[in-house]
Amino acid sequence: MMASSYSTKEEDGHQSGAPGPGGGVNAKSRKPDNTAFKQQRLPAWQPILTAGTVLPAFFIIGLLFIPIGIGLYVTSNNIKEYEIDYTGVDMSSPCFNCSQNYSWNSTKPCRCSVSFSLDQPFESNVFMYYGLSNYYQNHRRYVKSRDDSQLNGNLNALKDPSKECEPYRMNDGLPIAPCGAIANSLFNDTLELYYNDPNGTKTLIKLVKTGIAWWTDKHVKFRNPVGDGSNLSAVFQGTTKPVNWQKYVYQLDSDPDNNGFINEDLIVWMRTAALPTFRKLYRIIEKQGDATPTLPRGNYTLLVTYNYPVRSFEGRKRMILSTISWMGGKNPFLGIAYITVGSVCFFLGVVLLIIHHKYGSRSNNADISS
Amino acid sequence: MDFSALRNLISRYCTGEENWVDSRTVYIGHREPPPGTEAYIPQRFPDNRIVSSKYTFWNFVPKNLFEQFRRVANFYFLIIFLVQLIIDTPTSPVTSGLPLFFVITVTAIKQGYEDWLRHKADNAVNQCPVHIIQHGKVVRKQSRKLRVGDVVLVKEDETFPSDLILLSTSRDDGTCFVTTASLDGESSHKTYYAVQDTKSFNTEKEVDMLRATIECEQPQPDLYKFVGRINIYQDRDEPIARPLGSENLLLRGATLKNTEFVYAVAIYTGMESKMALNYQSKSQKRSAVEKSMNAFLVVYLCILISKALINTTLKYVWQSNPNRDEPWYNGKTDHERQRHVMIRAFTDFLAFMVLFNYIIPVSMYVTVEMQKFLGSYFITWDDEMFDEELGEGALVNTSDLNEELGQVEYVFTDKTGTLTENNMEFIECCVDGHVYVPHAICNGQILSGSSGIDMIDSSPGPDGKEREELFFRALCLCHTVQVKEEETVDGIKRGIHQGKATSFYISSSPDEVALVEGMKRLGFTYLRLKDNHMEILNREDEVERFELLEVLNFDSVRRRMSVIVRSSSGHLYLFCKGADSSIFPRVISGKVDRVRARVEHNAVEGLRTLCVAYKALSQEEYHNMCQLLDSAKLALQDRDRKLAEAYDLIERDLVLLGATAVEDRLQEKAADTIESLHKAGMKVWVLTGDKMETAAATCYASKLFRRSTQILELTTKRTEEQSLHDVLFELGRTVLRQHDSLTHDTFSGLSSEFQDYGLIIDGATLSAVMKPAQDDSSGNYREIFLEICRNCSAVLCCRMAPLQKAQIVKLIKASKEHPITLAVGDGANDVSMILEAHVGIGIMGKEGRQAARNSDYAIPKFKHLKKMLLVHGHYYYIRIAELVQYFFYKNVCFIFPQFLYQFFCGFSQQPLYDTAYLTLYNISFTSLPILLYSLIEQHISMDILKRDPSLYRDIAKNCLLRWRIFIYWTFLGLFDSMVFFFGAYFLFDNTTFTSNGQLMTTNTQMIFGNWTFGTLVFTVLVFTVTLKLALDTHYWTWINHFVVWGSLLFYVVFSLLWGGVIWPFLNYQRMYYVFVQMLSSGPAWLGIGLLVIISLLPDVLKKVLCRALWPTSTERIQRLKADGVFQRVLPQGHDSLLDPPQCTTET
Predict the structure, then answer these.
(1) CB A149 within 8 A of CB A219
(2) What does the pLDDT average to over B274-288?
(3) Taking CA atoms, which of B236, B533, B881, B976 is between 20 and 30 Å from B837?
(4) Nearest chain A CA: its distance from B936 CA (Å)
(5) With 90 as the cut, is the pLDDT of residue B794 above it?
């Protein structure tokens, strides 16, 4: 309205001069209304920030934050987390060979197994993550390279994906489903976890692959297109797989509730990470019974089907095992920050108290006596 | 403006070598003069259509858009919008297009509506019927069809359809009365005169017989200037030429009064009429705040560009590794690959610009304008500035300068009508040294005749008696007062006998009314002007008739007026009255010394004095004078100069009769107001055309000068004795010595020794000081003069011409500190200084409304200035200062995280926030609290501000918008945004910041993506920024609570809604359930709370510490009030708690 009031002035010039009936002569001679608002005398609370009023707040914050911080810190420390890098950068690492001999269209998968041991048992449900580093999932070109309506089961978008998907939109004249760079680069390593019993047997640990995505994503945002038959492959007729995929989208899983666009691995991957170092939920190891810990102390083997190349851009791949608490995953930062802020506030409270005592009252008295 | 273009055209046309071109010839009734008299030069004149509208139906859209995009800000946003449209940018064009579209549309609708109203008004005016005489008959036509040369019939109470030359009227004497209220606001009736030779025409037939041409100048905007000549062809003789002046010219827009009808001929029509030429809007004044705002904007523009440059450079450095530029998972299209690297770099730069462009938000302009526009209503609504007598409150003509009212350092005020009432009362007169004082009216009955006169001096002898009566008659005759028409002569007579106090006289000068009324009380009553005869009722109740031969009108240069009359006995007299300085040099006899002594005595008392002189004329002298005047009046070129010369010759060799004294009382609370302004640190200058003694007396009365003030005089009297050079240097030394010792003293606290100075300077000396430098020394005068003035608390400039007033203002404005000036005045002579000063304030006075019309603000009385400046000005200033700073702060907070994010997303211009948040942040999430704050914030209550003017000093010199404070705010913004970003970063980075999304059902942990990250930062941002404002708010009304908490709630509700639905019109669903998922995570809540507190902490700490350790007086007052001390202390007679030391010294 800058422009408008600017022009008001011009208009005023016009109107006062204009020979309109009445013109500006009979200016309003009414007495203005005597309302509290118009006279700027609305009743109001008039707080001021002085040392006196702020002091209690500082102490309260201090007293509140320090316990919260300690609580958070302890909780976070109680969370057990194990992380292992299986990229295979070193000659010595078991996956070195796989990481070297990499090609997209190799039919024979490269496998490598990494051993590790857990010093402490992991109680309750354990969450298994894969982590990638130096991977710019938040690059603008990457973030926008998707078609949400295609993923939502829109048939038109299935056959004619959005332009944002370029250059992963069409392949050989057929539309790609799911299109775009994000889907194309779906993480396709397979991780399997074996517990090495002290008696020498290896037991495959059951990994649950559903329930890892947001419920709303799985049930609302991502939907398979509805076709004539119940067969997914028929629905995806006329589309092709993303260039880097080895399977079609309807071949991702045997379970029909976890196949196609509603495959949870795909859904998790499609939620682009905020930072170049990130982890994504891969599987859940559910607690079996009350008697044994989910992951008892001992030696484990991680069997990796090494498909995903990261060394070209100096990336790293990790596998993380973690338990959770009421406040989520392991997160010492929050606890430390709370403790720090709480102490700082407490300290400032003390300083202000001194200042308030020395200066506040003195200047006050000086004013009154003058 | 079209008019200025038109005027340029005209002036260019006029500056042609041939003099004849700048005049026009009008053929009355379109009849050519008898052949052979002159070559017929066909001239084309515009029709009488008034076009005040700007647009037509079909050019509205392009023209309005063009006008709007001429504004730099709009243009900037348009460019950003276009860039977004053309190149592939991170944010959708909607984010900048929508706000811009909104602003543009609202403005266009408003302007369109206003223009439609103007069209309607134009049509009403252009189609209203006029009566035109054609072939001896009256024809009704639409006003727009009127052409130059048409003879028009205008009836009583009708408005003149164009500028007309008056041919004849229904009154026998060829006069008519007109009110020009709609032109210059003066509601008094003015008399206009018909051309002598045509005034007898009474019917259409007669008028139709007239064969004449009018030669006159091309139209010019000055309402009061007109020169022309009418040539009347009778009987195929040589034409009779008559002069035409502004007294013959009826202006379009004026209204005919008290006259049944007039015949007149149109000479300027349509857009060429003087009224149309005066349409032009005033030049725009910009406030100091606006200037700082623009400076800040430039800084932010630089920041914006450097941010974009840094990021572009880093992007290419980072991308030099091809695996970073294009890793296998993130391929480019062929099109992108083929593009030249320079083009890519350039589009990247533009994309970064677009990403960061919100740092200069459209909404700031919108909010500032709204604040100014809406805020100005508080002035018009103010009950305390409403004047019962006038029935009017304050008026705001420009809302742009509200905050400037809080920054005033120099106040230039007019004296008459501004400091004083301009309600004149006749006090005494002195004839040859004998003083006459009429009885006051208030003590009941007024006695007529000589018993009503107190003679202070010894009674004059018989000779004196004659002089006395001559004096009284002179005052009764030498004026331009009109008698109110509805009052008959009998009524006046009755009024005298019944002692009615009502005034029957109207005049543009209240002095004259006071004089004529005073004469009435002394026994000589002016009755009326009839048939060029002035009738007065003398003490014996006899009517004396004098034929009015010539009136030599008053003007401010001559400062006198004269009339030439012929008494019934045939004697010719010239009566002259005027300022003493203009009369005494022209007097050859009379008791000059005694009169002069009395005049000076009265002037010291603060009375306005006039001297009266006369000259008896012989027939021959009169004849000469007539010739002189006629030739001057007939001149087409330089008529004013020639007239002035003629007047100078005529008004000579006078005989002094006596002097009069009229009192002009001080306005109510004028002294109190001036004192408050002084205490508020303003320097008050009085600029007046009055005499030095009178003005000085007023200054003492209004406490501008106090008894303790040492007066420095810089007047003609002194410069006659010493050279200007010496005087100036001497005064300079006096003042500066004091100044030096003062700087020593301020620390020792001995400020009671402080001597304040008052300077008096008169117009003549001022012009000597101001004279452009001929050598180096003269350039120095100005500097010394300024130096002296700067050290004087009060300055009185007397004997000022209107233009000199403006010069003074300009001089101070241009001095090296560039102080903010305010000019306040009530009359037409103050208009120049009102227009010149930073803020012009008009008093709705008695001398018409010209000053009020040309001012930025108009107030009914001088005393309202106090509230205007100390309360409204103060409030507006702190409000807008906070508004400006806060806007920059909140946009730094908003945009800087995006900048930081680029370092973590490969400089790919990935926006941190969702499009909806980008768009709505400034429009709805954070806009209302600050707008409301800037409308109703009161850091101190009104009463304290009024009681303690020294608080005004706390905001002097634009102190809330200094660079230091601006930098503080900017750094606060940077700090806060770092907290937001890195806080969220550490919550996300290498730890699992995850959600227990469905804590109740499956207890799983979900990973958050980049949009959750952005939403977290944004939530912290909105809360911090809003709470920061809440901390700054000192005045919490229910509206504040409603808006502050309401806008936070709105943010939450909006986010829930925005993420809660799959919006079919969006081609991405990235925000789906992001907000809810975030809120269902415990760490998110903990994180938000923590980050908000960390961000607010430094500001709170700074506030508390500053308040405790270095409190400003504003803060001390707030503290005292909060502690309840204020109420206890004040009633005990402490006028001001916190007077700066130098002020407390005065009793």
Answers:
(1) no
(2) 67
(3) B881
(4) 7
(5) no
Which of these ranges, B95-104, B246-255, B493-502, has the smallest mean pLDDT? B493-502
Contacts of A220 in chain B (CB under 8 A): 1062, 1072
Greater model confidence, B831 or B1039 = B1039
Q: How far, in Å, are A257, A281, B1006, B1070 from residue A210 at the CA level?
A: 9, 11, 12, 22
What letter represents residue B1039's amino acid?
Answer: I
For helices B72-86 and B362-375, the axis angle rounded to 10 degrees is 150
Residues in chain A: 370
Using the Cβ of A364 and the Cβ atoms of chain B, whether some distance falls under 8 Å is answered with yes
Most confidently modeled range among B270-279, B392-401, B611-620, B713-722: B611-620
Would you state the pLDDT for residue B1108? 84
B1129 to each of B221, B833, B928, B945, B1107, how far by Cα in Å? 59, 42, 38, 16, 21
Distance from CA of B869 to the nearest CA of A (A): 16
Cα distance between residue B624 and residue B632, in whole Å: 12
Distance CA B953, CA B956 (A): 5
pLDDT > 90? residue A235 = no
Using CB atoms within 10 A of its CB, is residue B498 exposed (0-12), middle (13-18) or buried (19+)?
A: exposed
Contact by Cβ (8 Å): B50, B276: yes
Neighbours of B452 (CB within 10 A): 18
The Cα B176–Cα B258 span in angstroms is 7
Check: CB of residue A236 under 8 Å from CB of residue A260: yes
Q: How confident is the model at residue B636 (pLDDT cuts 50, 70, 90)?
A: low
Report the distance separating Cα B859 and Cα B873, nearest Å: 14
Structure tokens at B336: 């992108």
Tokens matching residue B1104: 């508390």
Phi-psi region of B483 (alpha: psi -120 to 50; beta: other; left: phi over 0): beta
Question: Phi-psi category of B638—alpha, beta or left, where left has phi over 0 and alpha has psi -120 to 50?
Answer: left
Indicate which residue of B115, B184, B382, B414 is catalytic: B414
Best B277, B908, B1004, B1107 member to test A by mutation, with max A CBs in 10 Å, is B1004
List phi, psi (to 5°) of B791.
-95, 5
Mean pLDDT of B271-287: 69
- Evaluate whether B116 touches B69 at the Cβ level (below 8 Å): no
Identify the CA nearest to A167 among candidates A268, A250, A265, A242.
Answer: A242
Instruction: Return the pLDDT at B709.
Output: 81
Interface test with B, best of A138, A245, A286 (most B CBs within 10 A): A138
Contact assessment for residue B160 and residue B194, using Cβ atoms and an 8 Å cutoff: no
Which pLDDT score, from 0 to 100, does residue A66 have? 95
| Cα gap B235→A189, rounded to integer Å | 119
Tell if the CB–CB gap between A367 and B1120 is shorter than 8 Å.
Answer: yes
Contact A329 B992 (CB under 8 A): yes
Which one-letter DSSP state was computed for residue A217? Answer: I
Cα(A336)–Cα(A69) distance, rounded to whole angstroms? 6
The Cβ of residue A206 has, within 10 Å, a number of other Cβ atoms equal to 11
pLDDT at B673: 92
Query: What average pLDDT does this structure show over B868-888?
Result: 93
Taking alpha carbons only, the member of B209, B244, B216, B252 closest to residue B48 is: B252
The pLDDT of residue A8: 35
CA atoms within 13 A on the CB side of B960: 25
CA distances from B1123 to A364, A366, B1119 (A): 10, 14, 6
Phi, psi dihedrals of residue B431, rounded to the nearest 5°: -110, 115
Query: Which residues neighbour B677 within 8 Å (Cβ) at sequence distance 6 or greater?
Result: B411, B684, B865, B866, B869, B949
Q: Cβ of B128: how many Cβ atoms within 10 Å?
A: 15
Tokens of B497: 């006998």
Taking the CA atoms of chain A, what radius of gyration do you get in angstroms? 32
The amino acid occupying position B751 is S
